[in-house]
Amino acid sequence: MNAGTGKLAGQRLIFYNDAKGFGGHEIQALHALRWMLREGAEVSCYYRAGNEAHQAALMNASDLGTLKMHPLELPAIRFHRPFHLFHPELVRSLAGRFQEENHTAAFIAQGNLEISAPGALAAKQAGIPCLSYIPITHRFVELGINKPRRRDLFNGYLATVPDRWLTISEAMRERLRQRGARQPIDLIPNCITLTESPDKRAARRALGLPEDACVLGMAGRLDRIQKGTNVFLDALAGFSADHPIRQAWILLLGDGPEKEGMLTNLKKQGWEGRILWQPWTDTPERIYPAFDLLVMPSRFEGLPITMQEALVCGVPIAASNVDGLGEFLPSEWTCPRNNPEALRELLESFAQNSAAYCAPLPSLAEHVRREHNREAFEETLADSLHNLLAQKGIAD
Question: What are the phi and psi torsion angles at 101 (to 5°)?
Answer without folding.
Answer: -110, 15
